[in-house]
Amino acid sequence: MNNTFQNRINKLRERIENNQSLLLSSSSDITYYTDFNFLLPEEREAFAFITKNSASLIHTSFSPIGDYPFIDYLKGSYPNQLANHIEKIIDKEKIEEILIDAETLFVAELNAIKEKFTDLKVNNCDTAIIQNFRNIKEPVEIEQIKKACIATALVIEEIKNELFEGITEYETKIKIDKLIEKHGADGLAFPTIIAFGSNSALPHHQPNDKKLENNMAVLIDMGTKVSGYCSDMTRTFWFGNNPSKKFLEIEKIVRAAYQATFEKLKKPTIKAKDLDNAARALISNKGYAEKFVHTTGHGLGLSIHEQPSISWSNVAEIYPNMTITIEPGIYLENEFGYRYENTVLVTEDGAVELTLQD
Amino acid sequence: MNNTFQNRINKLRERIENNQSLLLSSSSDITYYTDFNFLLPEEREAFAFITKNSASLIHTSFSPIGDYPFIDYLKGSYPNQLANHIEKIIDKEKIEEILIDAETLFVAELNAIKEKFTDLKVNNCDTAIIQNFRNIKEPVEIEQIKKACIATALVIEEIKNELFEGITEYETKIKIDKLIEKHGADGLAFPTIIAFGSNSALPHHQPNDKKLENNMAVLIDMGTKVSGYCSDMTRTFWFGNNPSKKFLEIEKIVRAAYQATFEKLKKPTIKAKDLDNAARALISNKGYAEKFVHTTGHGLGLSIHEQPSISWSNVAEIYPNMTITIEPGIYLENEFGYRYENTVLVTEDGAVELTLQD
User: Fold this and answer.
1) Which residues of chain A register pLDDT less than 70?
2) What is the ipTM of this complex?
3) CATH tag for A2-134 (out of 3.40.350.10, 3.40.50.20, 3.30.200.20, 2.40.128.280)
4) Residues of chain B neighbouring A106 (CB-CB closer than 8 A)
5) What pLDDT, in 10s, does the model give residues B240-259?
6) Based on the number of CB atoms within 10 Å of its own CB, is B178 exposed (0-12), middle (13-18) or buried (19 or more)?
7) Could you tell me if A37 lies within 8 Å of chain B, comparing CB atoms?
8) Fold of the domain built from segment(s) B136-353
9) Verdict on whether the full-model pTM lies above 0.90
10) B206, A64 Cβ separation under 8 angstroms
11) Minimal Cα–Cα distance from A231 to chain B, Å?
């Protein structure tokens, strides 16, 4: 594992100049490059500061840290402490520019740094520089994602058989929570979405006391985590023996949209936006363009949502060993929503569905 | 409940001028003022924008929202969408200044806003303005915190009896996860800290495969959540019949430091730093000043860590109906750490220990 982090840092280093430095503030980036695991990411327990000659983990000193010879461990991560640590490194290494990750650095942190260095260049770093190789998963990462995907698929398979008329969404959530570890996962990648009937028309509905009735749509969107790595899967199905005609119609469209997107991955090179378009064109042709309210998918790994976003505007290319979701959906207010989602591993000649167990 | 949020927004409004506006970016602040619940706070699912005349929830449109007549619901929360929504409100209401929460607004978000408004004043808001009444809990909030505290105390009581020689920290975590809902909580307020032996010397240690041995220190720091409200409690105890002399000595000091802090709350007015000093002076007098590496406590509510910080430098006064933790600790590297923590409710004439069940 020692080489894993050294290699990642070296790759990142190749992207910066001798007089530049890079401040990492996204928790999953910091984990990826330094092996530091966050207890509460919103509490800024650590930053990473990378130059051509050094790599520093600036941390609170309350949490476990690694013991890598190529990382300097510096205690104290409050904005002022952060600025002080950076000052010392900059002076020593004659750094002239700090590249920051504007999407994850707080204004107060930037202010503390700027106050310290009036004559230093502080510029936004293209997050692609930081995250480009993170998107392409290493074998050790794929292994964990696969485990998480299998656990999720097994939980969804099992919970389907535990539903009954009158169970609430919240009671279903509790049942799911109890299955997570049984199937080998460490915990949840995000709060499970369980939606009965018209509640499924809201993509991020959260379980409440709505009761399951006979002949009702059920949407479950969940993901487990294994060793920090996420999985993501959605199934929508009809509870009862008489699915409505509308449900069957929408199901057919969404499943076809999914399949069309999946097939596109067999093309040797494809852009994220073309993947999105495969699903969107199909749904639009059936007259539901405005009911497909989100992107077709997203990368996932240490974060549940990471690059590449499978969106209509993303021109990034899809590469082998990326792990992404394909998750088209149609949402009919006051009726139901239907989403179908698998986590897939992109390969040289297509993709493998990691969450497919049914 | 309708009045709850209206009243909170009105109180906040009293703190700003007619030509000012306030952009809330902390997820727990947004929940507190608008009843919006986040699925993934790091994904910026919503912002709140408050002026004298309007209150807006700027949201992704994927999650459940309230239906309050005093809130405008505006769809789209990406930085550009955020800036566009703000622009319309500012034009309409002739706003001249935006106050931001620099501690929770990302640089990219501020940049999107600044690009839009070259002649508008953008200034940092003192977070005390936003959070001052959040610290003083309403009866309905105290009720939920109490429930969470009772659940936590019951879980810790039960898990103590389930430990055995050879169980790992991680297996203990799994057992705890299964007890959460049994005792009436919705989930965890933060990842449970379980540390055996020398692992307890690190305040934020995370459970691993270390096995429990006879005659070893055990530290469990955990908190459950009920209806979004947190609890926090730590117990350190000796597993086995022969606690070391050192353990008993440290236990005595930490418990005395806790008690001294708790007693201080009986004074009619006291500052946070004086509370911290009560614990710190006692521990310092015994020669362990440098081993008490964190603050004496923190406020908690919708967030696990909120104001007031019970730190040596915080001059804020402690008021009745604040919910805070008291949690002195001593950490001896390669030996063990000892922390004792309760969540307490500050009252007119002292404090009540909400997590005290043993």
Assistant:
1) 1-2, 357-358
2) 0.94
3) 3.40.350.10
4) 102-107
5) 999 999 999 999 999 999 99
6) middle
7) yes
8) Creatine Amidinohydrolase (3.90.230)
9) yes
10) yes
11) 15
